[in-house]
Amino acid sequence: MTSYKKHTFTFSERWAVFRAYKQACIYCGNIVEWRDFEVDHILNESLLKDPMTLSGLIKDYGLKSDFEINSYHNWACSHHSCNRAKSDTTFDKSRALHYLLIAEKKAGKAADTFKATVKAHSVNKVLAPLRALIENGSLSHQEIVDFAHAIIKNAEVGLNNPTIICFGLNMEDVYENLPSNAPNSPPQIYDWLESALTKELQKQLKCSLKLWEDERNGETISARYAFWDLDFYKIDSLKLQWWEILELSLHTEIYGEFVQDSN
Questions:
Q1: What is the CATH number for 228?
Q2: pLDDT tens across 164-191, in order?
Q3: pTM metric for this prediction
Q4: Residue 261 domain-assigned?
Q5: Where are the alpha helices (H) located in 87-182, listed in sequence order?
Q6: Phi and psi (nearest 5°) for 153?
Q7: For 169, phi and psi rounded to 5 degrees?
Q8: DSSP state, 24?
């Protein structure tokens, strides 16, 4: 047996799989909520301990010679319970190939989402110090813009291109557990929920943020927030009541333009 180190998934990898599968569990087909989501290995990661068996499976299944256990071609969206039920089971050939074909079709989307998420994180890490210099008066916004234009013409990265995250909830879930101090009328409840969400995001993520837009239809609420200087690694440990992450992108990817003023 060969020793191996289990792969630790980054937020960007988890988000890429979550989005690629449109939040559907590969095993039961039902929607997966973020708090119940796990990335599962279709061909078990433990096969890395036995390279001979893994090599035989790859050959027997007709997979590419460069097939990797830890890749989007073998990662799938799963409920925690479905993943536990599967455990370390090795599927029979026909079933394994069925799931691997699904993963193959999702891999491109997952890779693109991963790249976009990493890019957004990198942009925030680079722009955070510049934003601080602007805010403390060391540099003017125009000086930064002129400097950037001097380096890169028609640059894709803007100085004010916040990360946009859309959160959503189902009002049925809220009404089942509505606390006694909550407002009575629906419009007030909606305002109360968004206000509470804003406070929790500020408390847990500790970055500049702003409610950008929301949509309410009586059954669900979706709220888009703009985040500046966001540390993506904190998102994975974000704990919210009722709210789920529905979307994550740069502002320019959604609206096609940079933000003129974050205030």
A1: 3.30.70
A2: 999 999 999 999 989 988 998 999 999 9
A3: 0.64
A4: no
A5: 93-135, 141-151, 171-176
A6: -85, 135
A7: -145, 160
A8: B
